[in-house]
Design goal:
This protein has 2 domains: about 1-30; about 45-155, Jelly Rolls, CATH 2.60.120. It contains 3 helices and 11 strands. It has helices at about 1-30, 60-65, 85; strands spanning about 45-50, 55-60, 70-75, 90-95, 95-105, 105-110, 115-120, 125, 130-135, 140-150, 155. The strands form 3 sheets. A 6-stranded antiparallel sheet has the order 1-2-3-10-5-8. A 3-stranded antiparallel sheet has the order 7-6-9, with no helix packed on it. The protein is globular. The N and C termini lie far apart (about 75 Å). Mean pLDDT is about 85; it is low at about 10-20.
């Protein structure tokens, strides 16, 4: 009798595994546009004016390599912090946004999360449409930002 129970249990386990594997297989067949290999080496000349007048952006070529699925860039602060110019509440209409501090420090306040200061090596995720305000940054601040999708809207709040 015990042998029959073990066999039945093993059969149920295999059945569950097959179902899970099937679900994963179905999920991975979702059609995505093809991606291509890309490399971006540091060159000072690649920094240009971007979204904000107080920073320069270096596009890492990820948007074109992923057919618009992902954007990645390095943001370098180019002017000293000026609250009148920088501390403007806003949000980004994105699916995913991650920021990593490469150099210096960066301070921002997030709706429902309070103010946080991030130093070189710190990383955070900003959930979609979270309202936030830049509160300060060091003169040498550089950030790596990864965003999905590559094209998105930034909404300035009054």
């Amino acid at each position: 009798m015990a042998k029959a129970k073990r066999k039945a249990k093993a059969t149920r386990s295999k059945s569950k595994t097959a179902k899970k594997t099937g679900a994963k297989a179905a999920k991975s067949t979702t059609a995505r546009k093809p991606q291509r290999f890309t490399v971006s080496h540091h060159r000072e000349g690649d920094f240009d004016q971007g979204l904000r007048p107080y920073s320069a952006y270096r596009d890492l070529g990820i948007a074109s390599a992923t057919n618009g699925m992902v954007q990645a860039h390095v943001i370098r602060m180019t002017k000293p912090f000026n609250a009148a110019e920088v501390a403007i509440p806003h949000y980004h209409d994105v699916d995913f946004q991650m920021v990593y501090v490469l150099k210096g420090w960066f301070r921002s306040e997030f709706e429902g999360e309070g103010a946080h200061t991030f130093h070189a090596g710190s990383c955070w995720i900003q959930p979609p449409k979270i309202r936030h305000t830049v509160l300060g940054y060091s003169d040498d601040c550089e950030l790596l930002e990864i965003v999905l999708p590559a094209n998105f809207e930034t909404v300035t709040l009054s």
